[in-house]
Amino acid sequence: MQLQDKIILVVGGATGIGKATAALCAARGARVIIADINETAGAETAAAITAPFIKVDVTSEANVQALYSQVNEQYGRLDVLIHAAGLLKGAFTSIEELTLDTWKLVMDINVKGSFLSVKHATPLLKKSKRGVVILLSSGAAQSGSSSYAYGASKGGVTSLGITLAGKLAPDNIRLNVLHPGNIRTPMKLSVIEADAQKRGESMDKLVADSHLGEPEGVAKVLAWLASDDADYLRGNVFTR
């Protein structure tokens, strides 16, 4: 598997799975660009792999459009979009107590953000010989979640990906949706912390009981999906 000279944009590449994926793709020869709203962590991650960092708010169409305009100006095309930006809020909050503001924020970042990213990436992906889009959903889209908003939003990302896959195929753009399981990311650890507080138990014990996978393991799957070796793969991909 080679990623040599592929232009890969990792949206949500500052931490967690996005960070691990950006590092692995760069190590395998890709020209990686990191975009994230977390400027401090994003700049640190980018510096560690000698990649450019672009700050972006995925809920703002103007912001997203500016991101892809900058990519176009600097590279003239995009080979792979890995959209890993996501938010989990409202863990263990009852449906009666979940606020509309929390629901809207999670939907805006996870679903609207995915839509805007693909919308503005598509003209650049059409310039690639083999464009690739990988959206990050979650096992929670099928198995349920600690958060009503998160589970519903990831279901939305999955359905969006299914629809996009067929629509983009005539332009030689392959789209896959990745569903990570329990992975040791800052977001997952925050959920475990909330669960520990709710139960009055040790967070260390709950982390151990969760048997978390590592972001680097998911990154290996994403790097393969970004490569031409995955050209015959279609649809949803699940990891531990």
Task: Label this structure with key terms.
Rossmann fold; 240 residues; single chain; alpha/beta; seven-stranded parallel sheet
Report what the structure shows.
With 240 residues, this protein is α/β, with parallel strands linked by helices. It has one domain (7-238): Rossmann fold (3-Layer(aba) Sandwich), CATH 3.40.50.720. It is built from nine helices and seven strands; from the N terminus they run βαβαβαβαβααβαααβ. Helix 1 (16-27) packs across helix 9, helix 3 (61-75) packs parallel to helix 4 (100-125) and helix 4 (100-125) packs parallel to helix 6. The longest helix is centred in the middle third of the chain and has 26 residues, at 100-125.
Task: Summarize the amount of helix as a percent range.
Answer: 40-55%
Class by SSE composition: alpha/beta
Count of separate DSSP helical elements: 9
- Strand tally is 7
Oligomeric state of shown chains:
single chain
Strand content: 5-15%
Q: Give me the side-by-side strand order of the main sheet.
A: 3-2-1-4-5-6-7
Radius of gyration equals: 17 Å
- Look at the structure and give the CATH class: Alpha Beta
Low-pLDDT stretches: none
